[in-house]
Design a protein that fits this description.
The chain is α+β, with helices and mostly antiparallel strands. It contains three helices and six strands. It has a four-stranded antiparallel sheet with strand order 3-4-1-6. α1 (28-41) packs antiparallel against α3. The two termini are 22 Å apart.
């Protein structure tokens, strides 16, 4: 993920869905509103939502989002929930996404 700023996390689990929007986005208001309720139900919170970024290696998308969940299993459960699965069908005709779920690391840092 290209760094936009230094962010310190503690033991969370994240979705990191970089997206490439297609020109027309009529889906966005209803998709975003539905996601707010879904993420809240699973304890998700945005830690990165758009914002400036610099691609220093490889390729990137036009928008990056990181959503923190209480743990890895909850992040998986949110993605697989009937509510989210129904909502991604609203987005998919209008946007391409690479969505990964990553378990956080709260161990010692290299010295």
């Amino acid at each position: 993920m290209p760094p936009a700023q230094t962010i310190s996390w503690s033991g969370g689990r994240w979705w990191k869905p970089p997206t490439r929007r297609r020109p027309q986005r009529p889906f966005r208001p209803s998709y975003v509103a539905a996601n707010a309720a879904i993420f809240k139900k699973f304890g998700g919170r945005f830690v990165v939502r758009g914002g400036r970024f610099t691609t220093v290696e490889g390729q990137s998308r036009t928008r990056n989002v990181v959503i923190e969940f209480p743990d890895y299993e909850t992040a998986i459960a949110c993605y697989n929930s009937p509510e989210y699965q129904a909502n991604i069908k609203v987005r998919q005709p209008h946007s391409l996404a690479d969505l990964i779920i990553i378990e956080g690391y709260d161990g010692p840092q290299p010295s």
